[in-house]
Design a protein that fits this description.
Two copies of one chain form a homodimer.
Chain A lengths: L25 H9 L5 E2 L12 H19 L9 H13 L9 E4 L1 H13 L5 E6 L3 H8 L4 E8 L2 E2 L1 H11 L6 E4 L13 H13 L4 E4 L15 H4 L4 E5 L11 E4 L2 H15 L4 H10 L4 H27 L5 E2 L7 E5 L6 H10 L2 E2 L1 E2 L12 E5 L5 H27 L12
Parallel strand pairs in A: 1-12, 3-4, 3-6, 6-7, 7-8
Antiparallel strand pairs in A: 2-9, 4-5, 8-9, 10-11, 11-14, 13-14
Helix pairs in contact in A: 2-10, 4-5, 4-9, 6-7, 11-13
Amino acid sequence: MGTARIVFDRWDGRYARRMARVRSSAVRDLFAAASRPDIISFAGGMPEVSRVPAEAAANAAYEAVIHEGSCALQYGSSEGRPALRAQIVELMAEIGVRLTADDIVVTAGAQQGLDLLAKTFLDPGDTVIAEGPTYVGALQAFSAYEPDIVCVPMDDGGMRIDALETELARLGPRGAKFIYTIPNFQNPAGVTLRPDRRRRLLELAREYDIPVIEDDPYGRLRFEGGHVKPLRALDDDVIYLGTFSKIFAPGLRLGWMTAPGPILAKVLLAKQAADLCGSAFAQVTAERYFSGTRWRRVLQGLTRTYAERRDAMLGAMEEHFPAEVRWTRPEGGFFVWAELPEFIDAGVLLAEAVEHGVTFVPGSAFYPDNRGRNCMRLAFCYAEPEAIEEGIRRLSEVVEDRLELYRAFIAAGALPEVTEGVA
Amino acid sequence: MGTARIVFDRWDGRYARRMARVRSSAVRDLFAAASRPDIISFAGGMPEVSRVPAEAAANAAYEAVIHEGSCALQYGSSEGRPALRAQIVELMAEIGVRLTADDIVVTAGAQQGLDLLAKTFLDPGDTVIAEGPTYVGALQAFSAYEPDIVCVPMDDGGMRIDALETELARLGPRGAKFIYTIPNFQNPAGVTLRPDRRRRLLELAREYDIPVIEDDPYGRLRFEGGHVKPLRALDDDVIYLGTFSKIFAPGLRLGWMTAPGPILAKVLLAKQAADLCGSAFAQVTAERYFSGTRWRRVLQGLTRTYAERRDAMLGAMEEHFPAEVRWTRPEGGFFVWAELPEFIDAGVLLAEAVEHGVTFVPGSAFYPDNRGRNCMRLAFCYAEPEAIEEGIRRLSEVVEDRLELYRAFIAAGALPEVTEGVA
């Protein structure tokens, strides 16, 4: 933006206090670099929209205007169109959640759901519990309402419930406004919350009387292993966020929220204040796209595509990455999380990686407090398998170079100093 | 919503403090009543989207997906597509405002612009200056950030600058975070800010060092009189909100904001947190719709249609309304503001009006403090001239009945008690 040119800000000191906390998304800032044709991007979690059948989507949009223009072009209800909410009821039933259309509010992607929930629940200084690392968009949405964000570590089974319990005991009953979790193929860690941990998390949430927000953008993109029931299927009080971005297209900005009635009523007020109502144009288009069965075959093919890309990434990492690097093995979704030796700063590494024609997101972007600096999120969703192999090869060279430097330091008995992160 | 059934709220006392302030829009709550076929609605400010050429809009949507699907279906930049921002540059040039695309952020309707500005500027207890009455959506958007909203009265020349000056003197330099104004065909009052007052308002804003937000949804819907330059054309520091809702269709949820660079950079961060980015699908569709010249002829025809409806409403009011009622005579836009004798409560009147098959919005919806209870906003944008005449006839009967009741009270020497408003 041209605004980058401006140095003097005559409104400095006039902004709301919250603006000191809201930082730009490192992920979004990387989109510009990612668009260079010579760059192989493991940065953005962008779905492969080229697999959406263009004719079907275009016809859905055309017919939305021609046959339902009086609705599609007009203001709509704040909760969203009844027909689309009825379709969401069916989607949710398929993953074991029984709802009626009244239990659902259509949002501008799941991101708006996060913003509205933060707006509904958070006063400055309130506590929020999330996985660490967690979705950068959730950190942005929450931060605007000035909470303290407590991060609970994960392992291969998802959020570590022992660590959660320690935090809850420290905070006490109602000591946090909500627990935010991405149980399936977590962004950025790629891990999935084990069924036994899901039950235990819900028990603890009841014991400490703290609402749970389940963010599930990737749940339908499972490559292997059996379906794991969402938290919402185990407990009616769970607030659940879904999105059409990964099962149709992010360009429509459509997601949904289900929550207990009183919470949903508050969220609806917050939504009226935020945008009056969602896009009826996008909603009618989605209704028509999802009215047949073709979307299911498209989604199956898309899931196979992502699975191949994950295989390509994990295979190449196995082959090329130095032994000092550890990484997760996701059963679905978009992301692998890699941990470098702790004296390596992934932000510094990124600059070198871009020179070598590959990008990723440094781990510190996914923490509220600059942790994760020796980590990388590697998105396998967007590049073809051959490009993924080449990108991992390039990245491994950059990692290897830096490791050699530090091995030499260590051999000389000089402990390296940890440099500053960029996020 | 089914949530209305629920009485007990186990999360009561857990919501953010702001939620005590956010109330539902009386306007939106009336939408349900307005959809009864026997009701003539003067309530919602809904554009006549039946005049949008369906084939042109449908083709724009179809081609957006077929020819630009890789963009239209994908995540986009937070500031909005360069091509649409270039078109907005041209639209703004036509009303005397010179910009570059970098000066613009595309928003989800102007409503999102209001929310993002409030988020960017307002801490609890801050002061905002607005016209009284003012746009109900602005009151909702601002209230979520817990400011004190100071209302400056209007007359036929728009905001009374003498009253503004009094408030500014009371509040002192930087005593308010911003001044919010709808200078053209104000919602709900229908009046337009006089050119000399525009200049004086800007002088005062400079003197007291307070940013001005100019909300201009109706500027291009002028029925008579000459074009009046927007505030932004007179002062580069004015924050300007525009929308495609009235020149194309609200169903796409597209608007824009222009503001000085440092403010726009903050707004952009707030937008990332709110929804990541706007709908590329809607943006590409709008680009294609606005790429020719046909939209201009459509808008001219639409403006004539609204002018005929205004004439029908003012004519019928002249003919039927009791002498005790006063009202504004808008030169454009959607709304007439009517003031009843102060002992009449328009909220009570509304219940009777619905029984008689006509709706409007009671005036108290447009104040933060329940003032305006003896006023009504009458939207002429949505009904055909014959229906408008019939609706005004019905409404005048209701008003006349109530007036007779009170005339009898007064004749008997019994002063009527002012009943509670409903908004």
